[in-house]
Amino acid sequence: IMPSPFRLIAVAAAVLSHTTTCASLPHASSQCADDTEVFFADTGCVSLSSAYSSAYSFLTANLPSWDKANAASLGFSLSPDTADGLDDGIATVGLNISLVAQQTFPWAWDLPQSVFNEYVATFAHVNEARNNWRPVLSAATAQILANAETAPTTVADVVTLINSNLWHVETSGLVNNITFKSSQTPLIYDPMSTLVFGYASCTGVSILFADALRTVGVAARVAGTPAWNGELENGNHNWIEVYIPEDDEWAFLEAAPAGGGETLSNPCDKWFCSPAKMANGTEFFSTRFDASSETVYPMAWDLDNDEVPGVDRTDYYQTTCNQ
Question: By the 8 A CB rule, do 241 and 250 touch?
Fold first, then answer.
């Protein structure tokens, strides 16, 4: 049973409501006929029902084994009669919120629907604990956008704004300041644990950063290497990649607690983008959700786990950073 996309849409809209009151953020009506439609770059305006069904089908078709076992808890294929009236889970609540974001933010209108399904609507990156992060982070990013001195107009603007403000209570409204603390994965790396403890290592802050960007319609994914220079003893690292629609390419940077002062436009402002780190054929990967991928994302904390699909990004980083 596929839950109705309209049952939660008012709740999702309420989460984002104080961004839509900002005059600098035009409403979806400037792209589509009314609020029952959502715009994608490759399809134009489609009904919310159609967009919801497309993303829902993508998610259910690509669940890893641990999510298949918990499909009902995530909100998939639920009976109309459930305990305490809880008839939706974190994945389907999040899907509705992501559709409202897609309606709301102009920079999201440049996303193809397939990119939205895989890198905005999805509820997880790797094997982190599944939890209801999207309403919490939506409220935080809404506050950041509402208080921006200059309204962002591009994906790069949004990424810079969120990365500059997400980590501080006074600007994000989150429960803790977030700092970097090494060697925390897999103890602390899901977004809610990072928020509660107030720290995480590179994987945890990367997941939190990517999730925050997804709440404002920016396609984001985790990337990294399981072993510098091909040697496990040299350590590993994670950061994020962001889809740049006008270039149809992915750019990369770290969450500010792990590497402040970085930009999407300059690969060389990352401390690890150097010939020394590329030596001996360092391999790089990014995450994805499509289970048909023949590439596995190697998780340094769980190297025998082959259930997280990936994209081999070795050629890109070796070419970009080995200069």
Answer: yes
